[in-house]
Amino acid sequence: MNERKPYLSVRGLQAGYGRAQVLFDMSFDVRPGEVVTLLGRNGMGRSTTVKCLFGMLPCLAGDITVAGERANGRAPHRIARQGLALVPEGRQIFTELSVEENLVATARGPAASGPAKAWTLDGIYALFPRLKERRTNLGSQLSGGEQQMLAIGRALMTNPRLVVLDEATEGLAPVIRDEIWRTIRQLKAEGLALIIIDKNINRLLDLADRHYVVEKGRVVWSGDSDAIRSQPHLIHQYLGV
Question: What is the mean pLDDT of the chain?
Answer without folding.
Answer: 91
